[in-house]
Amino acid sequence: MPTINNAASGFRMIYKNPNKPIVAVSGLHRGENPQPGSAVIAAIRRVYPQARIVGLVYDPLESGVHAGSDAPDAVYTMPYPSAGTDAYFARLAEIHQRERLDVIMPCLDTEVDLLAGALDHLVKMGIRSFLPAHSSVQLRDKARLVQLAEDAGCPVPATHCAHDLHSAREAAAALGMTQGRPVFVKGRLYEARAVSNFYELDAAFVKMIEQWGGPVLLQQRIEGEEFNVVGLGDGEGGLLGHCAIRKMLRTANGKGYGGMVVDDALLMLRARALIAALKWRGPFELEFVRAERAGDGVQSGAADYYLLEINPRFPAWVGFPSAIGCNLPARALDCALGRTARQEITVCAPGNFFVRHSVDVAGSLANLRALSVGGVFERAAPERYAPEPAVLESADPCLPLEQPELNACLSGVRHATHA
Fold it and tell me: For residue 385, what is the DSSP state?
């Protein structure tokens, strides 16, 4: 991209339309266990209808790729984050060379972990983000969640880490499985299975180790209603916006398929304390179960919210609050670009609910072939010229992009090509 450097001011002059940010979004699978990417895209387009969305996928059959008006403008295949930072950034650099990305919005836990540990590299590439510090990501790891919850004054189910079958069996017995109380077996990154005997435990443990690596977590199963909070942390311990729901429908795997807005002071007290302890920056989802406080191994006393997990990205249901005035993905994009909010975030009011439904999407084999073989297909080519007035982009990602008072100085400058 042609630029005019101004070392004294710390700004790079570029020729872009601020109404058309180029945003990379991942997590486009919308099957039984849907990922957030498609909901994030729809939310961004509500505020930035001219934005160019670049999809990053790991499988050409991720359904969001083929979802018509909700699909990205261009799609590129990526190496799995498990391939390592070098492979991931090499492919991202190829895409950036072609697309000139403004912002990347990762929607998968493994990507957030990888990118949060390489924020300086993103800055050097000229790609902006609104992500947490890597130390914050590590603190909310499942293996460290008990300590975090205790520090924040939030109750949490009893949890043990297991590195082998022997320690897994000991942990399950300590949690009461041998007395008829089921326990959850959780993978380090994803997935959870309820088990009631050692046969089920052994099978679940081996699967989690093979798929996600160790350690595997054994967690007390607490019966109660499930509540989720999606939000956007400001990096200083505060919230830029949030929406809290009670799950109304769940799949066989326990995934939320419908929910209603709730306004509960205790729930938000717990949520705010956790985000403050983490000084979280960017998207998050908190998962709770509401149950009586536990004492001496049994549940008794006043009801409270037990923390189950902290996810370091938007959930798949983030499209719901964005449809009722709480557009968190668009606000995250504003923050990444260093801009004031284009659309103010309103409080999600009780009385609203969502229910998810599934539809079939049609695709072209030619597009599938292009993505499978060539690693890319486009619905629309990137713009090569930008006839809009020039704006200044800060070389410092913390400085604002828009400098309208300087546009007059650039009005006579001939517009350069985008590529």
Answer: B
> Picking from 52-66, 148-162, 249-263, 326-340, which range would have the lowest pLDDT averaged per residue?
249-263
Residue position matching structure tokens 């300086």: 120
The answer to whether the beta carbons of residues 210 and 187 sit under 8 Å apart is no
User: What burial class does residue 8 get, using C-beta atoms within 10 Å of its C-beta: 0-12 exposed, 13-18 middle, 19+ buried?
Assistant: exposed
pTM of the model: 0.83
Residues in the chain: 419
Which one, of 305, 141, 266, 275, lies nearest residue 214 by Cα? 141
**Parallel/antiparallel/unpaired status of strands 239-250 and 225-234:** antiparallel
Name residue 103's beta-bridge partners.
23, 128
**270, pLDDT greater than 70:** yes
What are the DSSP calls for 232-267, one per residue?
A: EEESSS-EEEEEEEEEEEE-TT--EEEEEE---HHH
Q: Can you read off the two tokens belonging to residue 156?
A: 């949490």
Q: Are strands 103-105 and 22-26 parallel, antiparallel or unpaired?
A: parallel
Identify the burial level of 31 via C-beta atoms within 10 angstroms of its C-beta, where 0-12 means exposed, 13-18 middle and 19 or more buried.
exposed
Tokens of 380: 């629309």
Residue type (1 letter), 294: A
Return the beta strands (E) in 3-132 as ranges: 4-6, 11-14, 22-26, 52-57, 74-77, 103-105
- 18-22, 143-147, 253-257, 414-418, range with the lowest pLDDT: 414-418
Query: pLDDT of 86-110, one tens digit each?
Result: 999 999 999 999 999 999 999 999 9
Query: How many C-beta atoms lie closer than 10 Å to residue 60's C-beta?
Result: 19
DSSP state of 371: I
CA distance 105 to 235: 16
Chain centroid to CA 373: how far?
28
CA distances from 128 to 80, 177, 306 (A): 21, 47, 35
Token pair belonging to 272: 């705010």
Of 101, 35, 32, 28, the C-alpha closest to 70 is 28
Contacts of 115 (CB under 8 A, 6+ apart): 104, 106, 122, 129, 131
